[in-house]
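Quick one - inputs below.
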Amino acid sequence: MGLAEYNRKRNFGITREPPGDAPAKPRPDGARAYLIQKHAASRLHYDFRLELDGVLLSWSVPKGPSLDPREKRLAVHVEDHPLAYGDFEGIIPKGQYGGGTVLLWDRGTWEPQENPHAGYAKGNLKFTLKGEKLHGGFALIRLGGRRAREEGDKAWLLIKERDGEAREDGLDLTQTRPESVVSGRTLEEIAADRSSVWHSKPSHVDVAGAPGAREAPLPVRPKPPRAAARRKAPEGDDWLHEIAIPGIRVLARNERSRISLYSDRGTPLPAKAARKDRPIGDAVRMLPAETLLVDGIVAPLTEGGDQLGYFLFDLLYLDGRDLTRVPLLRRKELLEELVRRAGEGSLRYVEHIAGGGADFHREACRLGIAEMVGEREVSMKGRPRHRSRCRRGFG
Ligand code: MN
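Output:
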């Protein structure tokens, strides 16, 4: 099947985070990689993968492998995956394809017992596994018949061969050895650690096509536009209006999973604020981007609650491009898509309305909202952000 379908589903290419881990390369000894990833997606399953011709042939096995030759485990053939995916363990954000937690359950090498290309093509692949948990002979057999054809020939069976490694005593390795072979962690422990996140890249959002986007290095000291206080909301259709969320304005910079936070004056906040166990740093890592600069407000997710959220209203930089000359509305569209793809969590996208500043101001004050922010659609000279407050006792 090749990687075309994989790339189509994810749009393009894959980058692993955090970086510094080289993607898996074919082994010099010619041995082929074998691995199983336990994947808590909408339904828990085990992704069984065999390297062939530079990709990972992949089957999704709902019950996982069995050591008992009498147990024929359904294995749904899925698209090939890149070799680099094979050592991934961590989180795929919920808004993305395959969203959920991935645990590397077994890994090693495999050897075909016959010509693997012929066996794969005819739906009868026999092989020997040399894993950390699984050993010995196995077979993957494509189901035949009309029903199988109707299902696009995707239904296969994973069966243990009768050999010295087979067990018929009911031992279930998925139960007795649930842990990761790389980290010893459980799914729950991996799910709680946001430092390893897998994203579809580039960001699915069309940043290169945004008018005004310029290739530029990620700024080290951002210069956020400060808001001018005004009595009235600015008028004109080139202004967007938002409710000002009471909280602390913070800019977040992600350079390949290294998070830095800045105040609204562009001053760096203490490094510990962005540590990987802190909610804002973790949240920003979930945005599908290698490099990015966002602007938003840190505030409780719910009124009176303890849990902090990050309410984003602007995207200043994304994956190699400065966006400050991109029309604000387009930046917000890109940002909204990134937040959607980050999945559920502590990120929020701040909604706005375009134009009608006076009406918005009046209505917001009537609802008891204290403050509004207006942002100019295309920034020109002067302050592109205005804050306006409701008069005391109004409404
Ligand atoms: Mn999967």
